């Protein structure tokens, strides 16, 4: 395997992603997708494939990040296993089939959808939209439906689901730190199903860059994923020390910046 100087950027990206994954309970796709898109374009990868490669590689990296983040939050008793078990069947189905839909979308519409969706979520969190005090989590059928929706959208934008599951749980009056910890656990089935889906959908493509399996770029996966594993526990530790309002605004601000970066990269 020939070393490329661009590969030095991947572990730096993984450090940022891992820290924020632990801090905010996100898989890191909101950061990985726009940044990988920019890096792949800079390396002159096929323009029509860069978004799909960024999505697939992001999903595969989230598998590693989510495990590390999950363990860190679970050790602090912040993972609600009941929520995880009830939402996972819908998550798996929605994510896997969502990859088939995403793989057939052109790069520009996919990027616009990503940016609009992430911006909407960020605005909701920044302004701190409050749920009714009586609102609770839905029952099993409702949780499955929510899982299908979160999984499908997560496949389209290659996120670990945190930008959806955290606001959903906060809306249902789950404690903020428990919402973040539980979201880290939900990110694992999302990432696993999404990785398999993007691997299958990109397998038969010709003209892909070297060291790529399906839509997954292996150097980015190994280098960014490895660095993220080391940083996720540090982010999780910080999450349990910071005020909830500050966590929410950090989350929202980062999402807005990344949505703008994604649009800039695609239209540049």
Structure notes:
With 268 residues, this protein is mainly α. The chain has one domain. 74% of the residues lie in helices and 1% in strands. It contains 10 helices and 2 strands. The chain has a two-stranded antiparallel sheet. Helix 1 (9-24) runs parallel beside helix 9 (218-239) and helix 2 (29-42) runs antiparallel to helix 3. The longest helix has 27 residues, at 176-202. The radius of gyration is 17 Å and the shape is globular. The chain starts with 8 loop residues before the first helix and ends with a helix.
Q: Short summary of the structure?
A:
The protein has one domain (7-267). It contains ten helices and two strands; from the N terminus they run ααααααααββαα.
Write the layout of secondary structure elements.
Blueprint: H1 9-24, H2 29-42, H3 50-74, H4 81-102, H5 107-126, H6 140-157, H7 162-171, H8 176-202, E1 212-213, E2 216-217, H9 218-239, H10 244-267
Antiparallel strand pairs: 1-2
Question: Can you give keywords for this protein?
Answer:
single chain; 10 helices; mainly alpha; 268 residues
Number of domains: 1
The largest beta-sheet arranges its strands as: 1-2
Residue share in β-strands: under 5%
Order of helices and strands: HHHHHHHHEEHH
Helix content: over 70%
Shape: globular
Largest sheet: 2 strands, antiparallel
Oligomeric state as shown: single chain
- Rg for CA atoms: 17 Å
- Give the tally of β-strands: 2
How widely separated are the two ends? 31 Å
Overall structural class, as computed from helix and strand content, comes to mainly alpha
The helix count comes to 10
On the 0 to 100 scale, the average pLDDT is 79
Unreliable residue runs: none
């Amino acid at each position: 395997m020939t070393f490329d100087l661009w590969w030095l950027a991947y572990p730096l990206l993984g450090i940022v992603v891992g820290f924020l994954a632990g801090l905010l309970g996100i898989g890191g796709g909101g950061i990985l997708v726009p940044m990988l898109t920019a890096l792949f374009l800079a390396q002159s990868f096929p323009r029509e494939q860069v978004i799909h490669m960024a999505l697939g590689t992001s999903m595969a990296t989230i598998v590693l990040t989510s495990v590390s983040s999950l363990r860190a939050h679970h050790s602090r008793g912040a993972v609600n296993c009941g929520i995880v078990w009830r939402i996972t069947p819908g998550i798996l189905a929605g994510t896997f089939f969502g990859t088939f839909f995403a793989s057939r979308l052109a790069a520009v519409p996919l990027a616009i959808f990503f940016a609009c969706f992430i911006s909407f979520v960020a605005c909701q969190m920044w302004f701190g939209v409050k749920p009714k005090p009586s609102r609770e989590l839905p029952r099993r059928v409702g949780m499955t439906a929510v899982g299908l929706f979160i999984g499908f959208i997560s496949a389209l934008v290659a996120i670990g689901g945190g930008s959806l599951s955290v606001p959903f749980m906060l809306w249902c009056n789950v404690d903020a730190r428990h919402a973040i910890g539980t979201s880290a656990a939900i990110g694992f089935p999302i990432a696993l199903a999404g990785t398999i889906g993007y691997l299958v959908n990109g397998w038969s493509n010709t003209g892909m860059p070297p060291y790529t399996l399906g839509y997954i770029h292996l150097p980015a996966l190994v280098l960014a994923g490895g660095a993220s594993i080391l940083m996720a526990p540090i982010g999780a530790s910080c999450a349990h020390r910071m005020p909830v309002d500050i966590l929410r605004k950090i989350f929202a601000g980062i999402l807005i910046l990344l949505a703008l970066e994604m649009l800039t990269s695609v239209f540049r």
